[in-house]
Amino acid sequence: MPQQHGATSSFCSASSTNWEALPRLCRDLRDLVGEHSARHVLNALGGQVFYIPRIPPPDHPLAAIRPEAAQRICNAFHGERLAIPQARWLQRQERDNAIRLARKSGQSVSRLACVFGLSRRRIQQILASGQETEQ
C-alpha cells in the first residue's frame, strides 16, 4: 500500500525564506530539485495529494514542472502518495519579513497596514513576533 508523505502546510520569493521552519517535505523537495523548482512545485501543486509513479505520464500533476525535476521526484518518491504542502506558510513568512524590513526603513505602521492590506493591530503583532528570518 502506498505511503502518505508530508502534511498539508505551505509556500514565494527566494530572498527571505527560512526553509527550516517549513514542513520536511518542502525541505526534501528543495534538496532534491533545487529551490526554484521546489517553489514551483509548491506553488503549482500545493494542497494536492497524488500518487507518484516511477515515470510520470503526460497527464500527471508533475507534468506542470520541468521534466528533469519531475523525474527526480519520481525517482525519490515512486510508489508513495505525496501531500504537497500549500504555499501559505512560506508566503506569510516572506510577507512578515517584508513588513519588518519596511518598518526598519522608516515606514509607519499605518502605511504598512495600508500597503499590505492588514490592520494596524496585525502589523504590530507581526513586528512584535520576532526578528527577520534568514534563509
Structural write-up:
The chain has 135 residues and is mainly alpha-helical. It has helices spanning 24-33, 35-45, 67-77, 88-104, 109-116, 120-128, and strands at 4-5, 49-51, 81-83. The protein has 2 domains: 4-88, no CATH class; 93-128. A 3-stranded mixed sheet has the order 1-3-2, with no helix packed on it. Helix 1 (24-33) crosses helix 2 and helix 5 (109-116) crosses helix 6. The protein is elongated, with a radius of gyration of 17 Å.
- Taking the alpha carbons of the first and last residues, their distance comes to 37 Å
The low-confidence parts are: 1-14
Q: Hey, roughly how much beta strand do the residues contain?
A: 5-15%
Number of domains: 2
Judged by helices, strands and strand pairing, the structural class is mainly alpha
Biggest sheet, open or closed, and with what strands and sense?
A: 3 strands, mixed
SSE ordering: EHHEHEHHH
Kindly provide the radius of gyration, computed on alpha-carbon positions and rounded to a whole number of angstroms.
17 Å
Total of helices:
6
Helix content: 40-55%
Rounded mean pLDDT is 83
Number of strands: 3
Physical arrangement of strands within the biggest beta sheet: 1-3-2
Offer a quick outline of the entry:
The chain is mainly alpha-helical.
What tags apply to this protein structure?
135 residues, mainly alpha, 2 domains, three-stranded mixed beta sheet, 6 helices, 3 strands, disordered N terminus
Topology:
Layout (H helix, E strand, L loop, with lengths): L3 E2 L18 H10 L1 H11 L3 E3 L15 H11 L3 E3 L4 H17 L4 H8 L3 H9 L7
Parallel strand pairs: 1-3
Antiparallel strand pairs: 2-3
